[in-house]
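queue> holo job accepted (L-tryptophanamide)
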Amino acid sequence: MNPSARPRVFSGIQPTGSPHLGNYLGALRNWVRLQDDHDAYYCIVDLHAMTMPWSPAELHARTLETSASLLSVGIDPEASVLFLQSHVPEHVELSWVLTCIARMGELRRMIQFKERSKGEGESVGVGLFAYPVLQAADVLLYRAHRVPVGEDQRQHIELMRDLAERFNAQFGDTLVVPEAYIRGPGARIMALDDPTQKMSKSAGRPTASILLTDDPGQITKKLKSAKTDSGTQVRAGEDKPELTNLLSIFSLVTGEPTESLEGRFQGRGYGDFKAQLAEAVAAHLTPLRERYEAALADPGELERILATGAKRASEVAADTMADVREAVGLRRPQA
Ligand code: ATP
Ligand code: LTN
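queue> job finished
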């Protein structure tokens, strides 16, 4: 079914703003790692960015900015297929087919839908409700085996597995049932101002997230104001969610184990710890920010990369859709 001997990965990111440390440590770093020994498809999911109210001008600009961010973290357009979702119309076509086998009940159970639709009542957008089906189509279209994502996406991957299995049972073995690839303490980075919520692009609270485009001054300011408990001990633990989150970030950007950091900061207080953390995060992000700015300075090159990616992605998408159309009984046009 899959001509390549290497397992295939697919993942997506919404062009809803600069990626933050959560996106990077939870997902994008794994995208980069996997591109070396996988057949990798990475997609900027612009159609998903329309499930919440959006500004056309912002969507237009942010799409290119997101592609620059992906290059800055190390996505290599030679090693991966990097493309825009709306450049491959089969995403929408497969999404419709899957919508027709999806059930209201299973979509209503999606946590992200429940959270984002709170207080909206009957005016909640149909796009927001149907969004996990489009996400399923994204992955199933490429017959991907693995989907590197953060912990918040586990339920959406379960749903796409269910849809693929249902499709295959009803219409014959056509789609690959993918697996979530969720790894390590970075899979759920929490907001700096509220350790009960994940760091998120659309939270709308500037001090909640460190963006990959933040400069050292902004990083220091945000970490200084990061919420901590009223104690003084720098250690991880269930009773210290804020410190646990900050220690994970420290450990993930430096490679130093949490226990070793706890030892190093024993008796030194939160101020000193936060200053050192800011330095470590800034040192890690500075080369990324420089690469981002260089990539964005050449929009023509970014457009070329996306055009090449769309061409390569379209070949796979057309192939899968031809099989899907045949399986479900849609007729081919006759010349
Ligand atoms: P939005 O708030 O606009 O929905 P987001 O921050 O949730 O954006 P996405 O573009 O939806 O980001 O997700 C890109 C990838 O980043 C996904 O794989 C998602 O699981 C992962 N991710 C998002 N937030 C976090 C986080 N706080 N910790 C770890 N991974 C995360
Ligand atoms: N829904 C995801 C983004 C996303 C995605 C995908 C992730 C859209 N399509 C396909 C993995 C595979 C999100 O909100 N983080």
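queue> Residues 10-12, 14, 45, 48, 135, 138-139, 147, 149, 153, 156 surround L-tryptophanamide (ligand 2) (CB under 6 Å).
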